[in-house]
Amino acid sequence: MAKRQEPVRKSVKDTLENLLAGHREAAFNGPESALKYLNRTFEGQASLPNAVKAVAYDLSAEAQAQGGQWEDCVASVALVLGYLPDLEAAFPHEYRRMLAGMTCFERGIQAHSELGNFHSALDLCERALALDLGAHYQAKRDSLDWAR
Question: How far apart are CA 14 and CA 146, in angstroms?
């Protein structure tokens, strides 16, 4: 009787590297192409690790913002924020660097502002400041302070 081969399981890091490589290639053709690649990835990989989903939805939010798809961008940002604990758990030593490179806070503030949801934009500024992501969020918060 032949022994059944176990399926090859990629690590979270390998899955993330594959996602980033595919996104880079797709993004050469513009944000629409990048978004199409990411949507196909979500549809085709039901078992995508949550930490990778955080990065993928961050990339989606960036492409959606570039295309002026503000409602979709807000939804993607919300998903990113929900997956941040998973990202930290999967990449504890790289989490701060990865978080600093993400655009979800910037794009979320922009999208909420475009939609007139200034309280939500202000909340994102506060959250970015709580995570110590940079003084420019203080300036954004100050500019939205009137919305309190």
Answer: 45
